[in-house]
Task: inverse folding
């Protein structure tokens, strides 16, 4: 399939999913919760009107989360919920107010509340496939001390100097392995599952992310995972990119991070101990990552 044909096909599929989950939201009485890991996400502003589509896709999964928590900044929480989200609340969705922590709102309020089980983060502009959460949990069952994700990059180093220098984020290549490694950098858009014990690590680190990586939650969480001795594993040999909700586009945050914002926040976040751990892993890498 050509690139153009793929784009056309994806556009048709996205519109069909929007219709399908829109109808489901109006007519379904089925719960969106079950006995899986907790799922935490956030939305804001105009996306309040479309966030139900991502939630519906998660809630119809073969494994449903024990809780789905949607965190809203105070100004959004103060507004009346759209009917789409009100209907989901009757089926198990939790809509809660949180401080405005930028992209960290996706997980930080849940961490502060001391989650009672493993937890996954999701985005508000993605259609998640039916087996999404089940596949994450199967991977976590195989690798109980790892962070598991559908999409990762491989951190790259320049070892020609002393000390080794971490290369720009845009040079980090897509992961092509399911082997766990500290060098694997989980990107949150397709979903990431964290062990419950990691919540303690994140909570103890506090909110210093507001100074070091205020717009890069993936950077902060990867740094803490490496420091805690956790490896990151992609659940499939190649990164998975799920269909996005129509009408949502990459945000200014995404564009800023891709154009150098991540590098600035990495420099502010990855202290010498974490860089040493990553460099040592890089030197010992055998090419399977």
Result:
């Amino acid at each position: 399939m050509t690139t153009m044909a793929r784009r056309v096909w994806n556009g048709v599929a996205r519109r069909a999913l929007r219709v399908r989950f829109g109808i489901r939201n109006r007519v379904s009485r089925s719960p969106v919760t079950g006995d899986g890991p907790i799922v935490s996400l956030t939305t804001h502003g105009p996306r309040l009107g479309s966030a139900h589509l991502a939630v519906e896709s998660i809630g119809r999964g073969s494994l449903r989360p024990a809780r789905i928590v949607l965190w809203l900044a105070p100004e959004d929480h103060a507004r009346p919920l759209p009917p789409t989200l009100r209907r989901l609340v009757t089926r198990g969705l939790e809509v809660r107010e949180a401080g405005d922590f930028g992209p960290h709102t996706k997980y930080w309020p849940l961490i502060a509340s001391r989650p009672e089980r493993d937890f996954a983060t999701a985005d508000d502009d993605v259609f998640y496939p039916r087996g999404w959460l089940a596949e994450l949990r199967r991977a976590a069952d195989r690798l109980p001390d790892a962070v598991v994700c559908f999409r990762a990059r491989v951190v790259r180093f320049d070892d020609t100097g002393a000390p080794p220098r971490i290369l720009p984020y845009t040079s980090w290549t897509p992961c092509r392995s399911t082997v766990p490694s500290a060098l694997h950098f989980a990107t949150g858009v397709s979903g990431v599952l964290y062990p419950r014990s990691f919540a303690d690590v994140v909570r103890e680190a506090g909110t210093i992310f507001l100074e070091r990586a205020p717009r890069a939650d993936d950077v902060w969480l990867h740094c803490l995972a490496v420091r805690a001795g956790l490896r990151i594993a992609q659940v499939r040999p190649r990164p998975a990119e799920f269909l996005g909700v129509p009408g949502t586009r990459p945000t200014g945050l995404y564009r800023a991070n891709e154009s150098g914002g991540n590098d600035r926040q990495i420099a502010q976040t990855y202290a010498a101990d974490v860089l040493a751990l990553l460099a040592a892993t890089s030197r010992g890498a055998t090419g399977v990552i």
Observations:
- The mean pLDDT is 93.
- The radius of gyration is 19 Å.
- The first helix runs from residue 3 to 27.
